[in-house]
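[Automated response] Your request has been received and processed.

Submitted sequence:
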Amino acid sequence: MKNLLNFNTFCKLNGVRLSLAPFLILFNLLPIQLLSQQSFNYFNKRIDLTGSCDKGLSVLNIENGYSVGTITQDTIYHYYWQVAFALTDTLGELYQIKQYGDSGDFYLLGNPGSLIKYRNSKYFAVGNIFTPLGDWVYNRGLIMCLDNKFDTLWTKEYGEKTSPFNDTTFGILQLKKEYNNRLIMTGVRLPKNDPSSVWLMETDSLGNKLWERFYGEGEEYFQGHSVVQTNDGGFVIGAAKFEIHATGGYLDPLIIKTDSLGNEEWRVNPGNPDVDDNKVMVALAQDGNIIAGTNYGTDQSGDNRWAVVKIMKIKPDGTVLWDKNYLEPQYDNFLLNTIVLSNGNILVNGGRDTHYLGEEYPAQMGWILCTDSMGTQLWYREYALLTGHNSFNDLYDVRETSDGGLIGVGKVSPSVPDTGTADIWVMKMDSTGCLYAGCDTTVVVEETARPADGINIYPNPVTGVFTVDIGKPLQATGSVVIYNLYGGKVREVKIPKGEQVVRINASKWKSGLYVAMVSRQEKITGKKKFVVRYEK
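Generated structure:
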């Protein structure tokens, strides 16, 4: 239940955490430019919007850059949450902020996928607005229609219409554009004295409600987290259900299929009944089938659990085509989004608790897993911008970019020795998830022979001073650059003309995996992975 009940991915709300907890629980399910070759851009950086707390939840590739859907604390009281769109250029440099909110309400965005492109000159974003009411909140779903400069064309709210607004809360977590240009969205309806339900609502392109449906029964709480339209005109909801006061084994993934009017057709619960799992994030495969990403819990320990990543492919009639688990069980590992790439590959991202692994690891790292359309794993990588042992790196959303790469956004929360405030985390990768050209951070290869144009490092593992041998004397000045596991530059050493060997002192480096890259005349001519290892 940690994914439901903790607030680590939120900034403190100045003493009102308890009074806002009924609604924050719903939304907590949502955790440097480096080296470029030719015209491809890589970067891994943080963006501070307000000097307070910023959290990037969704990202889109727009003309001449990116739009990051963000929630940020206001600059006057540093208390109220507001919705912001951080506009950056192709290098991730912020050039404009569009911010929406007021001093009496909290504005929130939904899950990854809560910001979408409708057509070239129009975008939609969804979330909620809530107003504290003592021991409850007046909460309503929010749709924002935006132009290509991310100024609002119109906004609409959905929920209770009459005072005293203290009966039921509503929140929208994701939306999609339908084939007929209508909008379908899912979220949560939470009555004050009853369990929550999955909320599915269809509107026209102007936000006028056409119909709504609710799903859930008994004493369990139900939430809708993602939605997609299938080729038969119906819809699939990625959901979760749980008992809010239970400890262990009560958080289950849920997939609900409906017809075009929201009438339920079937359900699938792919979780472990004895261990907490996760919500489901759904996408549509190129062949028209449903892709569902979640976690499958393997071992429970109080509010924490170990889990693998689960991806399923399901026909619109409910037939499961394949159901695969990935990676070894990891502690408090949570999948946060699922997308299908233009080449048909499947990409899921999330975060996991790495604090327990040792002082050389941050508290939280992001990850991306990519498979082909049949579910065969292609690559898996982990990411962190901040490396302090108590610092968090939460990766929420990853999308394709116009140059064939990937853009990821989230939030970094620093703890010493890292500095600053909680900021947007944005990183630009190539199509294989690399933060620099030619990386491979998943496998350590113990090479004994050197390619004709490669390099050799010894000793490997490194325990202090090590040697980089580039194989033959340079005809012109070159350099060797060392990167750590997270893509951060650690050291750059010039290699004079006529030299072949350089020695580098790593005695103050952290234990871990590193990559050495040799460049000559601005071209990469060799690379080598090596390990720095110190006995404790």
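Summary generated for your ticket: The first strand starts at residue 43 and ends at 47. The chain has a mean pLDDT of 86.
If you did not submit this request, please reply to this message.
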